[in-house]
């Protein structure tokens, strides 16, 4: 619709006045700070005018000479505040759904220790069974469940939500991994105490779990997140998580002394092995704390590497 706005007595001099501009559609009088000047694009700032106007012939969002600059974009969230926000969100949403699975992981580890009690009497084998069963709780949640979560998140389009948020990619991966690893703490403590009582092992070294749980959890969570994000289908992510948990079960709980050489090498490639070794050494009459620190250091290095790989996998999956 074409509308002509005129003054009651229009003259040739009036045509050049800003109060009498011929407009189309929603075009209004120039200079009022709300309408757009003839030929201008939406979002500009008129020369000397208010930010509501538009520059004649300007580009989208342009600023004319003498105008005020547009409002700057909001800065990206910093790493640690964003990590805390993602962690709290994941912890609240997973609290109801994951607690039953945590009981399953704990009962599974307790059942394995009871079954192995009829085969293992004590010594290095008993230390390996208790330590491996305790870390198995971490593997079930941080590796298996996290691989399923990210696989389903990618398949269902949930990554699009996180990709639109102004948060670093590492905060999303670390926040989800930390939330899932937090659910393992009660199960690990119950398993470690029950196993120590069952196999008559000393309880004085249980404080090492303060370092074993987060370091082994970070390594396994990074691996589980990478499996879920790189798997083309959620079914393959679930399969990868279950295979990883089975490897942690077989190679972590069974004593290393009776395993073939090739299986021992495979066991050394599993991130949770070093957490198991560090915890198992604390049950010895005279623990070698140097080896304990070395095992925890390897576990920490693998955790940093696996979380970095998971962060790259998240960026790749979010942009496809």
What would you say about this model in short?
By secondary structure, the chain is mainly α.
Question: How is the secondary structure organized here?
Answer:
Blueprint: E1 2-3, E2 23-24, H1 79-117, H2 124-155, H3 159-164, H4 169-182, H5 184-198, H6 209-230, H7 234-253, H8 261-269, H9 272-281, H10 289-318
Helix pairs in contact: 1-2, 1-4, 1-5, 2-4, 2-5, 2-6, 2-7, 2-9, 4-6, 4-10, 6-7, 6-9, 6-10, 7-8, 9-10
Structure description:
With 320 residues, the protein is an all-alpha fold. The chain is built from ten helices and two strands; from the N terminus they run ββαααααααααα. It has helices at 79-117, 124-155, 159-164, 169-182, 184-198, 209-230, 234-253, 261-269, 272-281, 289-318; strands at residues 2-3, 23-24. A two-stranded antiparallel sheet has the order 1-2.
The major β-sheet equals: 2 strands, antiparallel
Order of helices and strands: EEHHHHHHHHHH
The average pLDDT is 77
**Strand residues, percent:** under 5%
Q: What is the tally of helical segments?
A: 10
Question: SS-based structural class?
Answer: mainly alpha
Question: What fraction, in percent, of the residue positions are helical?
Answer: 55-70%
Strand order of the largest sheet: 1-2
The poorly predicted ranges are 1-67
Gross morphology:
elongated
The total beta strand count reads 2
